[in-house]
Amino acid sequence: MEINLSYEQLNNDYSMLMGVLGASVSKHLVDEHLTCIWANNYYYELIGYTKAEYEARFHNQCDRYFETNPEGWRILTKKIESSLAGGEKGYSVYLPMIHPDGSPFWIKLQAVFTDECMDGHKVAYTTMVDVTEMMLAQKEQMRAQQNYETMTREQEMLMSALNVSVSSHLIDEHFTCIWANEFYYKLIGYPKQNMSPCSITMPMNITAITRRAGT
Q1: 195 by DSSP, 3-state: which?
Q2: Is 77 in a helix, a strand, or coil?
Q3: Using the 8-state DSSP alphabet, how is residue 29 labeled?
Q4: Residue 196 contacts by C-beta under 8 Å, 6 or more apart in sequence?
Q5: What is this structure's pTM?
Q6: pLDDT of 123-151, one tens digit each?
Q7: Is the dihedral of CA 78, 57, 14, 116 positive or negative?
Q8: Residues 196-212 as b or e (16 or more Cβ within 10 Å = b)
Q9: 49 and 57 Cβ atoms separated by less than 8 Å
């Protein structure tokens, strides 16, 4: 049985499918406003406005929508300009966004430039997905790494001030040193730059440390 669907039916089905997948799809003029020509329902759900509210308040112009988020607009326009200047077929960018209630969120926006032109402007299709959880997890990971590095530096400074050697080793046949504080090298009598990790073996370390300790 042959099934013929109209363009409008296909468009509605595609819009619904992308919404189920949590993806916003929209069509824009690549003009100074990045004017929105068409968008699926999830586009409006993602940014927090109904279609009627978006059209009445922003007149389908993205620059107006971004008036409360100048940093996001700066990042987006800079990416568009560099992509066009480089002759690229599209672009991908992570953007900080702001809900109508002022709460922040993050999206990943991907766009492709088409060969279509309207009113003398290129036309682009874009998709947006919410990546807030991923960005928050990355920020938390970076914060934890920075805290760890800060703590390590402070511990190293403290141990050096107390004339205590601190080092980290692989438990292999060489007891290979993979990290050590400055006093470690001062204690064994070798500058750090003259010693490769593979040359720092257990017999040498034990001999140097015990001799200088007077044992």
Answers
A1: coil
A2: helix
A3: E
A4: none
A5: 0.60
A6: 999 999 999 988 788 777 777 777 777 77
A7: negative
A8: eeeebeeebbeeeeeee
A9: yes
